[in-house]
């Protein structure tokens, strides 16, 4: 039996650098870190109407979409390199606000595999920024066409 991947079932992944706190100056954060925000929210802003969910604090986001040509390790290394270039300003921001690096993964597959190299983990440790990993998997098997026999 030949198994092929359904092109609509490729994992959707992203890295998100989140800075949260009270009275964030979004432009100052972007300038300090050399990163453009991809989204911002103010405390109390409606995120979802039903059920009603509001932002609990001001939030600044920098999101990096992960693709086959932009794998997790490379994308994380690039982001961490940018943060390392602004380490003093990053430290000042960390003293006042919450900073988290999140990796979100959505997939139809039951098993998802990512590898982070030791130098990437060392670079992450030097920033002092925690990494959160969120995986949403529907637990399906790889795609089969209708003309293949199931075994």
From TrEMBL:
Cross-referenced InterPro entries: DUF4279
Species of provenance: Candidatus Onthenecus intestinigallinarum
Full protein name: DUF4279 domain-containing protein
One Pfam family here: DUF4279
Source organism superkingdom: Bacteria
């Amino acid at each position: 039996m030949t198994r092929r991947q359904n092109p609509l079932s490729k994992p959707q992944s992203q890295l998100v650098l989140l800075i949260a706190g009270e009275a964030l100056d979004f432009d100052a954060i972007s300038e300090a870190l050399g990163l453009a925000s991809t989204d911002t929210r103010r405390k109390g802003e409606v995120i979802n109407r039903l059920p009603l969910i509001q932002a609990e604090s001001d939030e600044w986001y920098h999101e990096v979409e992960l693709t086959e040509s932009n794998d997790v390790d490379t994308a994380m290394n690039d982001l961490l390199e940018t943060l390392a270039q602004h380490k003093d300003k990053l430290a000042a921001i960390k003293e006042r606000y919450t900073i988290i690096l999140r990796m979100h993964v959505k997939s139809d597959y039951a098993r998802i595999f990512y590898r982070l190299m030791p130098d990437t983990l060392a670079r992450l440790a030097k920033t002092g920024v925690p990494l959160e990993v969120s995986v949403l998997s529907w637990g399906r098997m790889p795609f089969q066409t209708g003309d293949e026999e199931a075994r």
